[in-house]
Design brief:
The chain is mainly α and 259 residues long. The chain folds into 2 domains: 2-94, Arc Repressor Mutant, subunit A, CATH 1.10.10.10; 101-240, Winged helix-like DNA-binding domain superfamily/Winged helix DNA-binding domain (Arc Repressor Mutant, subunit A), CATH 1.10.10.10. It is built from 12 helices and 7 strands. The chain has helices at 2-11, 17-31, 37-41, 52-65, 89-92, 105-117, 122-129, 135-143, 166-171, 201-208, 216-219, 234-258; strands spanning 71-76, 79-84, 101-102, 120-121, 147-152, 160-164, 197-198. The strands form 3 sheets. A 3-stranded antiparallel beta sheet has the order 4-6-5. A two-stranded antiparallel sheet has the order 1-2. A hairpin with a 7-residue loop joins strand 5 and strand 6. Helix 2 crosses helix 4. The longest helix has 25 residues, at 234-258.
Length: 259
């Protein structure tokens, strides 16, 4: 009986070396998303579980071995992730026949302002950009889980404060906000567009919601501002001009009667 117990203990000893590295690699491939050290450690029983230091060392070895492979191990906000190397996207993307659309410049500018100036309100974004922010843009960023409401500004109307999410950092291969490029390094936002694939739903939603008007919280945050036209917001601004025209039309009859 004692011999069997000793054998079981040996078989269930802490997993290390190549065996540990292979388990981690298989788990990261199967997960299809970033896994934290705690999540990787949970793959093992109490007797098998290596320390976080040993796990980190195994991941470092795996990272070096990936240098000659078609995949790379990167650390992002949520943990570690195995993914196709950036330089191979041109060929791997041909597995998908449908070519994804790309995000508009207006959406990129909105996301950039949230990332660099968070927490920030919709009205503050509009003040910086000089144009109204389309409801479609905010909705798209929220549905992609790139932004979230982190609070409300203590002013009349209680406008929502937006901040970036861990999913946003993961998408752009960032561990934290400190990894964002400095504003001095950003020359032209159009250089980012090839890396930002847009699902077809964005353009479809923009057409379907072309009659949206700005939210009340955004409108009440600042005094009325005459915005320049933006291609992404053209339909929304056109609707507001129509409403203003109707309002002025209602005043005319009253003025005639008084005169």
């Amino acid at each position: 009986m004692t011999d069997k117990q000793d054998t079981n203990k040996e078989n269930r000893a802490t997993i290390e070396g190549d065996a540990l590295k292979q388990i981690l690699e298989a788990a990261l491939l199967a997960a299809g998303q970033a896994l934290s050290l705690n999540q990787l450690a949970s793959l093992f029983t109490d007797e098998e579980r290596p320390s976080n230091k040993v796990l980190s060392q195994a991941l470092e070895v795996l990272d070096k071995e990936c240098e000659t492979r078609g995949v790379e191990l990167i650390e992002v906000a949520s943990g570690y992730r195995l993914q196709v190397k950036q330089g191979l996207h041109e060929w791997v993307s041909r597995l998908w026949t449908e070519r994804p659309q790309r995000y508009s410049r207006a959406l990129l500018e909105t996301m950039s302002l949230i990332a660099y100036r968070q927490p920030i309100t919709r009205g503050e974004i509009e003040a910086v950009r000089g144009v109204a922010v389309s409801t479609n843009i905010i909705r798209t960023l929220q549905e992609r889980e790139w932004i979230r409401v982190v609070g409300h500004r203590d002013v009349p109307g209680k406008p929502a404060l937006f901040g970036s999410t861990r999913e946003f950092l993961d998408y752009f291969n960032l561990k934290n906000l400190d990894d964002l490029p400095t504003l001095a390094e950003i020359r032209d936002m159009e250089n980012l567009e090839p890396e930002l694939d847009l699902e077809p739903e964005y353009e479809d939603r923009k057409k379907a919601d072309s009659e949206d008007v700005p939210d009340e919280e955004s409108a009440g945050e600042y005094a009325p501002v005459e915005f320049e036209h933006d291609e992404d917001d053209e339909s929304e601004i056109a609707d507001s001009e129509t409403e203003e025209s109707d309002f002025n039309g209602d005043e005319s009859p009253g003025a005639d009667k008084q005169s």
